[in-house]
Design brief:
alpha+beta, three-stranded mixed beta sheet
Amino acid sequence: MMTQEQHLKLEERIVEVLRSVYDPEIPIDIYSLGLIYKIDLSYEGDLVIDMTLTAPNCPAADFIVDDVRTKLEGLEGIRSVVVNIVFEPEWTKDMMTEEAKLELGFL
C-alpha cells in the first residue's frame, strides 16, 4: 500500500506517460487532446483509465490502447492496468487544451 505522497507522485507520472502517447494521425498527445476521461489509481497500484477516441472507428485504436497499457504497466508502483474505451460523453474539440487547439489552428 502506498502513502498519499507516493499516490500523488504516481498520478503525476501517469499523466506524464499519457502525454507521451500520440494518435498517429494527429501530432498532439492523447492527454492534451482531452481523450482521457478518468484516471482511477488505487492505493494498491491498480489503475483504471477511461478514455475515448477522436472517432468511434479510429483505425489507430488498438495501437493507442496498447501503447497506453504498455507504457503504464512499466511504471514502478503499478500492479495492473485496465484501459476502457468509452464514447460517453462524445469527444469534441472543445475538450482539447488551449495549447492543442492553438497547435491545430482551432484558435
